[in-house]
Amino acid sequence: MSAAVIGxxxxxxxxxxxxxxxxxxxSLLIVGFVGYAIILDPAAAIGxxxxxxxxxxxxxxxxxxPLFIMMGNFAFQxxxxxxxxxxxxxxxxxxxxxxxxxxxxxxxxxGAICGxxxxxxxxxxxxxxxxxxxxxxxxxxxxxxxxxxxxxxxLIPPSTPMIIYCIMAEESIGKQFIAGILPGxxxxxxxxxxxxIMVKLKPSIAPTPVRSTWREKFSSLTGxxxxxxxxxxxxxxxxxxxxSVNQSAAVGAFLAIxxxxxxxxxxxxxxxxxxxxxxxxxxMMFLIVIGASVFASFLAxxxxxxxxxxxxxxxxxxxxxxxxxxTVIYIILGMLMDELPxxxxxxxxxxxxxxxxxxxxIWFGIYIILVMELGAIAPPVGLNCFIIQGxxxxxxxxxxxxxxxxxxxxxxxGILLIYFFPQIVLVLPNLL
Length: 432
Prior knowledge:
- This protein has one domain (63-289, 302-431).
- It is 78% helix and 0% strand.
- It is built from 22 helices and no strands.
- The protein starts with a helix and ends with a helix.
């Protein structure tokens, strides 16, 4: 049996273990270790398993992840997400489906201080869903806008999946972050446009817009000073060269704690809750990182990624065809797992293929984030849809899927736009 066939069997076994409910990090670790032992020998596999955790624990770039997680947790405790929602509602009051549109806008803003798809979805769902239901919004519009808005958390920097991708692809985290700004704004605008079209086609799903005064609009901006300070300090310091990425993350985490105290929300219970969430989230992610590193070592010795790249080149197909194939794969994987294990599983396979076509790795990183967003809301699973169902248990999952479907088309439009106009992604990184 060839090494490439063993690699394919390993991927299938991994997916079966995930389907059976095994922890993703452990699944990657077990399959990678056993596959490595079969291709080489058990002693080499044990040596690799002994080396990987220590190597990953000493990876300086990984320090940035718990710091950004901490920043997002304390930003939520400080009430910044509520202020974003109020401002979005005031400025988009005249837009059809204004509360749904403001949910998307606020999710984009919260994504700038969070970096997690699930956390953004859960946070905005807790805030926005009761408001939209109170004003008579149809469940499919309210849940669909929240599910879509949550996906913006991993596209607008800082973004945890972007950090993991950059570590694996050996790309600049700062450039990858700034590459996500324009696509993030573009996708938020497309999402709001989708809401407007939905309401125009069926006005009964949202109440008639109520105008807000200019005084109310400008008054709502006063609550955004914390977001501006946090976003400006983190990204401004990073892109100006004043801070490194890790230093920016540390400054952001410290400022988020200060904002929590200034807003009089820093109680001992909330401090413990934020720190506990940070530790739990990072521990889960770190196990995935270790497991994925072992799995990547297994894939490397199978030489399957290189064989796949050679096979595609020998078929003489365009990169557009390859992109369609990868998009279908990512949609399927998005139905089975979260965004981080998807990156860990696919990047070692797809990077040699992308490199063989001469595609810019920064552009490919944004593409990966967009297709992950697609997987997060696409039926029959869609992680964000399950999160919303957990918040509103009385709304059937089928209705949430119905609301998410129009936004699947929205993200596909976004992918097409960056494919035909790659400068949407590359113009800002090229300026650095």
